[in-house]
């Protein structure tokens, strides 16, 4: 029990500082008092949490705990989740009491066990009732009340909704099938007008990938932790796959027309000639299908050796030709939509960004302080804060041991835009990034270099450099390269690229889209 006490008194509030800062002074007092009661009040973690509003002044101590034992870390995570849930239940019960006139939310002072143990309205999916499940939890009323007032639910309500449903499923020892996850996602859509793909995304027909979505991942992650520490005897279930696939739906071989003698001659001509440029562009269009088939079969470095014209200083024109053939009419959508997007995204940034470093960038954006960074770069860098990386990466430690790391927001930012201050720093910067990527078992993908020494931008890939005077054309070209050359998005910033793909260019592919991207696109439509 003493070990559990140490875990629970670790710096939980500082870890949740970004959420805590959004509370009013009254809610902060309730939060701190609840935290003190949970950590200092009793060794019994199922103790009631009543009579806690009279202690608003609490000194939140910081203790560190160094343990490499996996099971110990899993217990720590479970306890922190329980603390967060119980604090939220207490605070939200006050909010729901104030906002729902005449309603009486469940009392926060009721005995709350370490893992929620509410009575079940039904264990069968035939009568799955979201409202009944939410009303079993004090915080559930907050979700219902918010939807009644705003006709939508926000991030806090989504988190509460997921917590209530997963706790109810685990409490009833429900082994949930994919069809049942789909059913629950549909019920959420019917009740709260939410996109079902936020909660469950089934795999494509014939695919060996696992499903995804917030509900699916939350359920199996929590279930796995319970099983690992012996909490419940669940059967093994598939987790969330982090596998990625090629973004570009390239042509199948049977779709390529018979290459007549003229096309074959043009292909050979393009591989050895660089001019006249008008003839290059004409033959590049004529050979599009043949080149796409060839690109599908080659590794990335081989593509550039076979088609050396891409190394030409005007290679951007060839990338644009291929993109226009692949997606007719979508060539200029990023540039055309950018100004309206800038106006719409600022309120979203102000509402959702909590990361300290990104908050400093947000202050520059709000104050229109663009002395160091142009406005467009600030916006792209801030996108990483609301579309953070979600996939863990395999890496090799200095002891040659394999480990899994979750990329940070900074990792995500630097996998899309890298700053170089001096011309002599260019090659060392690229080498450092390439080395780090190789250690993670990946190849360096196209990215943008912000050259401060001459105020230009380079789209860089495999030692090829396309130079631009402004950031937005560089971003536009970098995006198109992924499709023209059939490349994967970098794992670190995949969500940001997928947002650009779906929001600006409205391109649909088989690439799995995270719920964060779906939520952001929906919020910008309103």
Q: Count the DSSP helices.
A: 23
What is the straight-line distance between the termini? 50 Å
Q: How many strand segments?
A: 6
Question: What is the 3D shape?
Answer: globular
Helix percentage: 40-55%
Number of domains: 3
Biggest sheet details: 4 strands, mixed
Strand content: 5-15%
Integer average pLDDT: 74
Low-confidence stretches: 1-23, 33-76, 90-123, 231-259
Key phrases:
526 residues, mainly alpha, four-stranded mixed sheet, two-stranded antiparallel sheet, 23 helices, 6 strands, 5% strand
Would you give an account of this structure?
- This protein has 526 residues and is mainly α.
- The protein folds into three domains: 2-228, no CATH class; 253-326; 333-525, no CATH class.
- It contains 23 helices and six strands.
């Amino acid at each position: 029990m003493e070990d559990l006490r140490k875990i629970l008194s670790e710096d939980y509030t500082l870890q949740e500082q970004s959420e805590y800062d959004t509370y009013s002074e009254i809610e902060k007092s309730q939060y701190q008092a609840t935290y003190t009661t949970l950590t200092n009040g009793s060794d019994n973690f199922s103790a009631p949490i009543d009579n806690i509003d009279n202690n608003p002044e609490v000194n939140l101590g910081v203790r560190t705990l160094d343990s490499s034992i996996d099971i110990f870390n899993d217990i720590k995570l479970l306890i922190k989740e329980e603390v967060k849930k119980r604090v939220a239940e207490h605070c939200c019960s006050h909010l729901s009491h104030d906002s729902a006139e005449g309603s009486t939310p469940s009392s926060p002072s009721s005995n709350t066990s370490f893992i929620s143990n509410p009575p079940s309205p039904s264990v069968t999916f035939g009568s799955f009732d979201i409202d009944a499940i939410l009303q079993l939890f004090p915080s559930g009323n907050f979700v219902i009340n918010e939807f009644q007032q705003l006709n939508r639910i926000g991030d806090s309500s989504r988190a509460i909704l997921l917590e209530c449903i997963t706790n109810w499923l685990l409490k009833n020892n429900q082994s949930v099938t994919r069809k049942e996850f789909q059913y629950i996602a549909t019920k959420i859509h019917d009740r709260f007008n939410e996109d079902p793909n936020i909660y469950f995304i089934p795999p494509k027909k014939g695919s060996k990938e696992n499903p995804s979505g917030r509900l699916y991942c939350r359920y199996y992650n929590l279930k796995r932790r319970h099983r690992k520490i012996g909490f419940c005897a669940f059967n093994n279930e598939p987790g969330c796959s982090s596998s990625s696939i090629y973004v570009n739906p390239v042509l199948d071989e049977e779709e390529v027309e018979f290459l007549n003698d003229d096309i074959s001659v043009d292909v050979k001509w393009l591989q050895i000639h660089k001019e006249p440029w008008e003839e290059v562009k004409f033959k590049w269009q004529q050979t599009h299908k043949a080149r796409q088939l060839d690109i599908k079969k080659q590794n990335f470095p081989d593509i550039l050796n076979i088609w050396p014209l891409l190394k030409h200083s005007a290679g951007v024109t060839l990338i644009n030709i291929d993109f226009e053939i692949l997606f007719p009419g979508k060539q200029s959508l990023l540039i055309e939509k950018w100004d309206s997007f800038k106006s719409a995204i600022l309120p979203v940034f102000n509402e959702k960004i909590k990361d300290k470093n990104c908050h400093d960038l947000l202050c520059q954006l709000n104050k229109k302080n663009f002395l160091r960074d142009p406005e467009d770069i600030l916006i792209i860098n801030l996108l990483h804060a609301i579309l953070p990386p979600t996939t863990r990466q395999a890496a090799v430690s200095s002891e040659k041991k394999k480990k899994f790391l979750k990329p940070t927001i900074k990792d995500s930012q630097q996998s899309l835009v890298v700053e170089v201050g001096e011309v002599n720093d260019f090659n060392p910067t690229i080498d450092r990034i390439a080395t780090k990527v190789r250690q993670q078992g990946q190849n360096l993908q196209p990215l943008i270099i912000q050259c401060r020494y001459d105020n230009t931008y380079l789209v860089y890939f495999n030692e090829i450099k396309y130079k631009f005077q402004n950031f937005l054309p560089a971003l536009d070209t970098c995006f198109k390269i992924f499709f023209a050359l059939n490349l994967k998005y970098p794992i670190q910033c995949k969500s940001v690229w997928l947002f650009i793909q779906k929001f600006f260019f409205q391109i649909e592919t088989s690439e799995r889209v995270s719920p964060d991207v779906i939520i952001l696109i929906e919020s910008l439509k309103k």
